[in-house]
Amino acid sequence: MAPRIHSSEDARRMARKRLPWMVFDYIDGAAGAETGAARNRAAFDGLQLRPRILRDVHDRSLSVPLWGKPTKVPFGISPMGMCNLAGPGADMMLARLAARENVPLGVSTVASTAMEPLIEEAEGNAWFQLYFSGDGTGTFKLVERAKAAGYETIVLTVDVAEVGRRPRELRHGFTMPFKIGPRQFIDFAMHPRWSLASLFAGKPQMANFDLDGYAFDRTESRARADWDTLARLREMWPGKLVVKGVLDGDDAARLKAVGVDAIQVSSHGARQLESAPSPIQVLPEIRTAVGPDMPLFFDTGLRSGEDVTKAYALGANFTFLGRILQFAIAAGGEEGLNTLWKVLCDETHITLAQIGATSLTSLENAIRPLD
Q: What is the pTM of this model?
């Protein structure tokens, strides 16, 4: 039976019932008391779109250019760690979606499926997301491995100098690698549907760490990364280089000056710094800082087609969806994922019609100024 998903909130509500508490709170949680996440939502809700009437909008398109080529839809898939916790095979479901929709799949450093089968399943529509950690030795091994696997885009995530404290997951004893103690056993026993499916599929693992001499420690400091680190990566990486986690106009301008190919405005889903500004509010500032031609990508807090439209109206060139896709998988497997994806496409189409626009590349004055 098809899951009754009519919005991202439907998917989240179903996921909350079906996932163990520890897993749900890992996916859903944010830093500190989660006021940052609430502020992100309030920032989107505070933006009003400008309805326009009597415009011929029957021929609308969701296609936008990305690296000079058209996509089918205006959003891709954010890199997310340990997606297979949402449901067995979740990584591959997302890869198939990326292949079908011709959009990028973000493959996390801490993905629960290795980077090689994911780019193959995604038919080349995959970008490798890179965390710098320790002294960087293992990090640059991953860069060489991504190059050998055929990746053409690397996304360097720079907003995790230290892993943020997320009390919800800490209370459950969540760790990577995944560990099961008495508390977790009881949690799993209360959610037998998830537990039996996961037991049959095997315990999710961080799959990109079979390299000799490199075992990833999620809690290891990443504070040594600096502008010289970026310069080294730029020198060794021949493909596209995206820097993700940017919330400051001065930083964005410097990134442009040193030759990155795109900047991703993001607060990591409010999972790192509770007091970080809402990305959607600083997006116009960063657009001004880098000028009209620098590719700006956006993630954090997107929950609907109206949210996506607002991001484009404020200067984004492409957007990425995150945890709501995991919720859809938890709610209904691959069918749930495809259902929510269609919902988001439909919402975006309808939003364009309501504001008198035919595409996301021409949204001048789409945001209504607040009094």
A: 0.95
